[in-house]
Design a protein that fits this description.
Helices cover 30% and strands 23% of the residues. The chain has nine helices and twelve strands. The strands form three sheets. Strands 10-9-8-11-12 form a five-stranded antiparallel sheet, sandwiched between helices. Strands 4-7-5-6 form a four-stranded antiparallel sheet, with no helix packed on it. A three-stranded parallel sheet has the order 2-1-3, with helices on both faces. α1 crosses α9. 42% of the residues are buried.
């Protein structure tokens, strides 16, 4: 199919912890496509989404959902079943990439540097630490730093963690425990099999959590990052290899921690996002813009690849 005009159904919202981010992404995408002359049907994801799509009969679906069930293979399987083309990664890739432990199992044998760690039952945290402090606890399949806790000697969680301490152990039965990597937060987008730039994220307080990601002015984005060229090259290389190994389509975003006292040996991939945000504060549109690809063109390219 050529450059349209197309009829695009934009799937957004849903019921994950990232609903508000998805609505913002979806609205941005919808307006961009309308500005390019395409017909857009906005769909706020609910349990009747398959019926709605069958009524609408779009040429293609722009998947602007974040988190479960839009990012974990559920929606991808449904779209495959009803025979609709869609943006971003397919079913198998989505199932693996949303699960941080499965991602490690898929990438580490190929030499992709990732932090060690293992799954722990939340109940066990009240008896003893799973790793020497400092360490990180995170749900295995939430994005946007939802439910991440950094446990240090000084943290007020108690030692061992107290049942009454507020944290992800109260919301999730199982968590991924990883060694904490000191240093800097870097991220690299891949678009249609090409690594873009490296952005350094400097939250103005605490760490790069949900609020820091989506509140204007809470995080400085340094793009391109002020880092040695060998580190930038390593980020782009790892991001592209991870994108290919997982079988990602369209856009993906790889997040890193870099211990700047250790050079390349201090660089670790944390996760690969197969449905990166498309909000005004999001990192993929920002990197594309630095390379001369404006937001509407970026969106159009993603739809074109899906078609």
């Amino acid at each position: 199919m050529t450059r349209g005009p197309w009829h695009v159904a934009v799937l957004m919202g849903g019921w994950s912890a990232e609903r508000s981010v998805s609505l913002s992404s979806g609205e941005g995408v919808s307006k961009a496509l309308e500005s390019r002359g395409h017909k857009v049907t906005r769909i706020d994801m609910d349990r009747d989404v398959a019926l709605r799509l069958a009524e609408v009969k779009p040429d293609v679906v722009f998947n602007a959902l974040h988190g479960v069930p839009g990012e974990d293979g559920t929606v991808q399987g449904m779209l495959d079943l009803i025979g609709l083309k869609y943006t971003h990664s397919g079913l198998a890739t989505s199932v693996i990439a949303i699960d941080k432990q499965l991602t490690k199992q898929a990438l580490m044998p190929h030499g992709i540097p990732m932090p060690g760690g293992h799954m722990v039952e939340s109940e066990s945290l009240y008896r003893a630490d799973p790793l020497p402090r400092p360490y990180v606890l995170k749900p295995v399949n939430e994005g946007s730093s939802v439910g991440v806790a950094i446990v240090t000697e000084e943290s007020n969680f108690g030692n061992p963690i107290a049942r009454t301490s507020k944290g992800p152990w109260q919301e999730f039965d199982e968590l991924l425990a990883e060694p904490y990597i000191r240093g800097r937060e870097l991220t690299t987008a891949v678009l249609a099999d090409e690594a873009l730039l490296v952005t350094e994220l400097k939250p103005k307080s605490g760490f790069y959590d949900f609020d820091a990601k989506y509140t204007d002015g809470m995080t400085d984005h340094i793009c391109p990052a002020d880092i040695p060229e060998e580190i930038a090259e390593a980020c782009r290389d790892i991001a592209l290899r991870a994108h290919r190994l997982l079988g990602c389509k369209g856009a993906s975003r790889s997040d890193f921690r870099w211990d700047d006292e250790k050079g390349v040996a201090g660089l670790f991939l944390l996760e690969v996002n197969t449905q990166p945000g498309m909000t005004p504060l999001s990192l993929v549109p920002e990197q594309a813009a630095k390379l001369g690809i404006d937001y509407a063109e970026l969106v159009e390219r993603m739809v074109e690849e899906a078609l």
